[in-house]
Design goal:
By secondary structure, this protein is α/β, with parallel strands linked by helices. It has 13 helices and twelve strands.
Length: about 350
Amino acid sequence: MEHGGDTKTYQGKSAYPLVDFSANINPLGVPEILKEAMTEGLEGAHRYPDRFYRDLRRALGEWMGVEADRLVVGNGAMEIIGICISLFEKIYLPTPTFSEYERIAVDLKKEIVTYPMSRPFRLNADDFIAHMPEGALVILTNPHNPTGYTLSAEEVEKIYEAVLARGGYMLSDETFLPFVRGGEDAHQEGLYRPKQITVRAATKSHALPGLRLGWAIMNDGLRDRFLKRQLPWSVNAVAEACGIHLKDCGDYMEKSRDFVEQERRKLLELFEESDIAEALPGEANFLLIRLKDVTVASCFDYFLREGILLRTFSEEPLKDEYFRMAVRDEKDNAAFRKLWMQFERSCRHV
């Protein structure tokens, strides 16, 4: 499975409607205020959006505490990250990580330097720095995908200082950071660093994967280079309307953090008692699970037959032992826990 959310591929392989645990979307669903904004946005579907997205950038800037002219917006975080990678000749990645970074760099014929992390794939900042090449775009995902581990502000600052010393640039992909209590406040300083690109999106945090809205803060003249590469009108009118109202979703995100924390704890307790698996204790709205003496294929097939889609991996070092699962709503999580106990019992009788 290359990406989560690929339900079309697996339709018809279960007697039950599929419950998608492979995509990590806010389990509370789209905020009501954004549903209203969608209706407003549709009223503007007969005309082009503002090519420069002035109202959208102004609203995002006021929300995040940065000037609008340091913001770019795009068709999800991936469009922005792809353009950013195109601006540099070399990238440096801790692995395992989100596979699209490397795929984009390969397509663009960029030099790729990887830093393989050992289990449990929690980045060692000092060793990561020790192997850092000169002049690279260093890409961090914080919280890390797929583990959910979050780097502290101090760790990120240390890495950033090393990036400066080696004449590089840093891209911090923070699409899952809103799920971490205090995470955005802790990493606020990164929004002002001259050689840091900070990428965020409404995809995961506000349950809007279908609208494709991302944005980034850029400094040091990089924004001008970025805009020369970006095609116009990459954000549609409905996504633009939602983006303008993200600043009004504070209560929704607070409830989301409380809910995800509570439900993640229940799932962690399930795996703490398991004989065949262990969960990495991340802080995002998903869990990375390592299987013991059970194949990923048998686990995936068992859950798929019962109507639950898990996220598996095709790349090393994850493909043989690990799967990732979202923290979903209370009903779905309860169904997963019940099915997991059945699966575990079935493994004992093999």
